[in-house]
Amino acid sequence: MPSPANTGLASTPPDGGWGWAVLFGAFVSIGFSYAFPKAIAIFFKEIQAFFGTSYSEIAWVSSIMLATTYGGGPISSILVNRFGSRPVVIFGGLLCGIGMVSASFCTSIMQLYICVGLISGFGLALNLQPSVIIIGKYFLKRRPLANGLAMAGSPVMLCTLAPLNQFLFDNFGWRGSFLILGAILLNCCVAGALFRPIGPATGPIQKEANKEGKETAKEEEEDKDCCAKFNQYLDCSLFKHRGFLIYLVGNVLMFLGFFAPIVFLAPYAKHIGIDEYSAAFLLSILAIVDMFARPATGLIANSKWVRPKIQYFFSFSIAFNGACHLLCPLASDYTGLIIYSVFFGLAFGMVCAMLFETLMDLVGATRFTSAVGLVTIAECCTILLGPPIGGTLIDTFGDYKYMFIKCGAVMVLAGTFLFIMNYYNYRMLAKEEKAMATKDPEHGRTVNEGSNDWDREKIQDGQELEPLTDEQGLKKEINGLSEA
Amino acid sequence: MRGCGSGTRALRLPLLLLSLAAMCLSEDALSGPTTTTQSTSQQTQNILNNTPTEHNVSTPGQAITTQGVHQETRESFSENTSGGHDRSTDGPRYTTQQTNLTWMAYNISIPGFSSPLIEKNITLDSPANIELSCTVASVSTHAVAIEKTWKKDTKTIESNVTSNETKNVWSTQYKLQIREKKDMGSYMCVMKGEQEVQAVFHLKVPKIKGKEKPIVSYEGDSVVMVCESGNYIPITWIWYTINGSHQVPINDSLMPEKYIIDKTPANKTHLKIMKLTGQDGGLYVCQAVFKLGENNGEVNLKVLNYMVPLKPFFAIAAEVIVLVALIFLYEIYSKKKEMLAEGEKEFEQIEQLKSEESNGVENSSTRHRKV
To answer: Which parts of this chain are annotated as the region Disordered (chain A) (predicted)?
Structure first.
């Protein structure tokens, strides 16, 4: 059964043209998804005084939002597989707006959890996944660069939203700010409008073919059981995919130590005696370096030397990140912390820019839709566990250095694991490629990918026989009908 | 404070013996000890009771200083700069009261004779015993006669002149017992020899943190305003609203559905105002009352109409709708163009085929004719 996501590969990714507009939309969408939960923390102190709660109860709003954004991944993937990126993102933008507008009328902290945490969080989940997916559909040759540029949306949005939120709060209070932020989040719908669906050529003949295909599909659908139907929308066979499993284990491990240092950087600076504004400035340095590191990493990852071995580059950047954290306790004054922030921003940007690119590289653009959903829900747990574990370490030992050592060690371990496992994976892929080439020399050329540079990409998709045969089936139908 | 008492007794005995020994040793010394003790007591009184000639010292001050002597014995009296005499002999003449306050020492070290006036702020929230001292850092080797004066808010409270001594005498101390609001203020030490140095201690009640930026709320909504006093705990908090030029205290028991004042924890106060109206806006003052005085914090409240944020909301929503419409229109337009272009191409192709066919037919027909 051909689903819209599978037919994405039938057409050539344009690597430009309307793709740049799509990239801009993804930039905005991804930026809101990552930056909004962090930027909203500016309102917490006032809301805490208003509802008379403790700070940890308020911080749950951000945690619930982040958890929903990551946990809603599989649902987002299913919806994209069914309807395509555009409707999902527009619906997500509407959901975010509704969530924030209703939050401005909240009268209890529980209502705030639901409106801001659940509703807006789910809206952001419906924004994040489709944006990342559609980049894979519009870019192939320049995909790492496109990924790097799109992921740069997160620090840019954070740097924009933080002062904007402060300005809104000073002029409109927290209720008015939530109302206006609801309107600002509606801009995700604009981003969604830019996500023009790309697939096989949409002429009248093709539409008829689709209709016919759907009719036959409906007949067969009733015969299938619900497991196979579910598999159609969320490809669970990915769990047998070697590359996917390597990525999953490595990333789940990495996220345990990824976010905690950012959360505790400012408190650590205050702890060693730096004043509040200078501590906040450290985070700004981090965001600015991050902003430039992401596109730069995308550019480097796109080069012909790095792209074939992009997994090694990814593992290196994770290990580099871990090394930064391990060296942080040596920084005992403000200058040392500034140096740490610069290197941390660099490493953080490198990892984030390649986060989804490496997954696309491993599973291919067809199965990426389902893969990203499964990966985000697995990462959801460790992301939420990371900062509390760090906090417990700090409280137990009364010293921040153990938290940094834990984060650094976890990330170096994850980087090494990914490096070794990907070396093994590359070797296995090379072996399989040789075996394929000797068996069926025609096989690799049936997929029309345009550029011939990325043989590995094709061969990897070649391993996934199911979608390809479906594509070929659809093509035959179209050709057959046109001849008639 | 057991150590205090035992220390007194411990010092009493040897000093008594000393004075007795001095009496035995010389005839001249007969008057000596008595005079010394008398002068000591006078000195002590001078120091502690503020200038005997100027009876501008409040009587409670005097009464309190007597207690102070008792507690002084805990400190080392070797550095008595005023008279070089021990003051501890007068222990038994004073009654013990309030021995549970510790002495806190504050020192200003003046770096040089030409340095600018140094000021030090001391924050006190409850009664305390303070020892203030001023010292000039650079040591002058030659001994001069120095006039040492202590002033409270420009009034001189103590003044004496040191005799010629070889050691560094550019330092002075003053002991204070702060019990009331009147005791707070600015205390200045002045040392005048060939040059003059000054330093000021400001004794103040703790500062109250309100809010610098105005709090924004909406009509019909409720708002919570917070004031904090930090590590100091006031006796009570009072909220005022500013009506014109004078302060009107807020009584939450009179209007419980409008105002709620929450005073826990002790170093914070919350004023919750419900059912806000436009008139509720303005400046609110939270006053923390300490035993040693009061201090105010300010919170500014702005009450807005719901229409105020709705305008930017609708503006942004309109912008979103316009942009989405533009994007969809552009897409439809470019698709139409594409289809037209395709249609034209197909038309051209069909034309070409037709012309080829007709050429072919003609050729065959000519061939036929030729045959």
So the answer is: 437-484
Question: Looking at chain A, how many residues does it have?
Answer: 484
pLDDT at A288: 93
Query: Which tens digits make up the pLDDT trace of B151-162?
Result: 888 777 777 666
Of the candidates A32, A17, A248, A10, which has an alpha carbon nearest to the alpha carbon of residue A146?
A17
- Tell me the C-alpha distance between B133 and B121, whole Å: 14
What are the b/e assignments for A385-424, b being 16+ CB within 10 Å? ebbebbbebbeeeeebeebbbbbbebbbbbbebbbebbee
Pairing of strands B223-228, B236-243: unpaired
A58, A47 Cβ separation under 8 angstroms: yes
pLDDT at B324: 95
Cβ atoms within 10 Å of B49's Cβ, excluding its own: 17
Place of tokens 């969080």: A121
Query: Does the bond joining B249 to the residue before it have cis omega, within 30 degrees of 0?
Result: no
A121 burial class (0-12, 13-18, 19+ CB within 10 angstroms)? buried
Buried b (16+ CB within 10 A) or exposed e, A164-180: bbeebbebbbbbbbbbb
- Give the residues across from B216 on adjacent strands: B302
Reported confidence tier of residue A480, pLDDT bands at 50, 70, 90: very low
> How far is residue B239's CA from residue B227's CA, in Å, rounded to a whole number?
10
Do A173 and B217 lie within an 8 Å CB cutoff? yes
Distance of CA A377 to the CA centre of its chain: 11
Q: What is the pLDDT of residue A365?
A: 81
Cβ–Cβ of B217/A186 closer than 8 Å?
no
Residue A423: predicted pLDDT: 93
| Cβ-based burial of A260 (10 A; exposed 0-12, middle 13-18, buried ≥19) | buried
Domains of chain A (ranges plus CATH)?
17-198 (1.20.1250.20), 236-432 (1.20.1250.20)
Average pLDDT of span A88-93: 95
Q: Residues 304..343 of B with a Cβ closer than 8 Å to A: which?
A: 304, 308-310, 312-317, 320, 323-324, 327-328, 331, 342
Between CA A121 and CA A34 the distance in angstroms is 10
> What are the two backbone dihedrals, phi and then psi, of residue B255, each rounded to the nearest 5 degrees?
-125, 75
Per DSSP (E only), the strands in B26-165 are 103-110, 118-123, 128-136, 147-152, 155-161
What end-to-end distance do the CA atoms of chain A give, in Å?
23
Cβ neighbours for B48, distance < 8 A, ≥ 6 positions apart: B65, B66, B68, B69, B175
* ipTM computed for the complex: 0.78
Measured CA distances, B315 to A430, B15, B133, B320, B322 (Å):
57, 89, 65, 9, 11
Nearest to A183 among B223, B313, B324 (CB): B313
More confident: B76 or A94: A94
Residue where the block lists tokens 């003449």: B93
Dihedral angle, C-alpha A219, A225, A230, A235, nearest 10 °:
-100
Distance of alpha carbon A20 from alpha carbon A17, whole angstroms: 6
- What pTM value is reported for the model? 0.72
What's the CA gap between A444 and A456, in Å, rounded? 10
As beta bridge partners, residue B177 has B129
pLDDT in tens, B197-230: 888 999 888 899 888 889 999 998 889 998 988 8
Rounded to the nearest angstrom, the minimum Cα separation between A243 and chain B is: 38
Residue B94 is classified by DSSP as S
Q: Judge whether residue B84 has pLDDT over 50.
A: no
CA separation for the pair A100, A117 (Å, rounded)? 10
Minimum Cα–Cα distance from A180: chain B residue = B313
| Contact across the interface for A176 and B218, Cβ inside 8 Å | yes
